[in-house]
Amino acid sequence: MTNELQSAVRKLKNNQHGSGAWPWFNGGRDNRFITQHIIAGFGHLKQLNVTSTSDEETMIENAIDYLDAQFVQEYKDIRKHNKDADLSKDHLSHTQLHYLYTRSFYSEMTPSKEVQNIMEYYQSQIQKYWLSRSLYEKGLMALTMYRSDDAKTVGKIVKSLKENSITSEELGMYWKTNTNSWHWYQAPVETQALMVEVFSEIGNVILSEAKNLEVVDNLKIWLLKNKQTNSWKTTKATSEAVYALLLQGSDWLSVTEQVDVKVGGETISPETLENVKVEAGTGYYKTSWNGSEIKPEQADVTITKKGDGIAWGALYWQYFEDLDKITSAETPLKLSKKLFLKSNTDKGEEITEITSNTKLKVGDLIRVRIELRTDRIMEFVHLKDMRAAGLEPVNVLSQYKWQDGLGYYESTKDAATNFFMDYLPKGVYVFEYDLRVNNAGDMSNGISTIQSMYAPEFSSHSEGVRITVD
Hints:
Pfam families: bMG10 (PF17973). By secondary structure, the protein is of the alpha+beta class.
């Protein structure tokens, strides 16, 4: 770790330009945002009481000189590019706001009188226009104003953030407006991490200490639950999330007590199980029973959590059953599947739902309708829809499709149709495709199954359907 740390600092030192700025890539031109991001990162380390070396302090001082100059220049450009510019209007750019947040970590480095005056101008803009800005910007504003001792504005912003949030036992505390975008200031993981920082540092302004601790823990729960079913795509998102999890709130990292699990009255723990290894750091372990070992009383499972923080696990019960006798399963992913007989009439196309009493004949056209509901955003999800042996797909070409804001790859195979979704937003989705009745007989049409590829505990299936073809 020491070698990695020294290597990272050396790389930063070698890549910093004489101006104090860093490029995006080595050899590139000065990049203000990258420089602000790096200096904010040093600010985060400072908040976590990590002391800087003399080399790091020199880098920080040079970078802040560069950022101060860029801050002043952008302010001057308001007038330069528009001589009649009304300075009372909203001129809060995202970069200027991020600068104010970054600069607030270094109050000991006194800015010049010019920089100070411009800071006061932007602070007056924040007081006037904070309500119309995005969630991420409100977080930047709240921390900036708190560190410049404007308790009145801070109280308004934090109260607004709290009132617009949603808290659920399953997902923690989050905001509906915190959605994906192409902009750096609209990134869900970084935004949630910033909210953890806001409430860790200044939540006590509107809440009691105990109540605020609960809020911070709920914000952290959303981050961890997000990681369960999504990848944190960038080093920036990951580092911001790690910083948030290390901030105030309950100390979850020092919790070492295992969760007590009882299955049918028998305590299950690594000590009582043979050949079971506990994963270092996470405490993860698993065990299983074969069919002959399973007794009816094992259907009673009791889980007792002793320490603070969050823990989760999964219990699977696998057995053989006729496909058409399977009942639906409900998890955060919910599936329902229906078959309809498609016919052409004088009024146009009509569909009627197929039941166990419906008599089909060879040549009939069947429409499959699958309804999927999810209560959270997920990534890398696979939906597999089985079909009866006597049915053949009308569309046999695999292709990428787009409908209702959802992109997915549809792949038609011999016994099933597969849908692969690399990004599944929260909501309700309907998939439809047509099948032709090819053979007579009494057949099971199988079930639809769905599973998150990287969080297999998030899985679900529809009930089985049986069809009869004369």
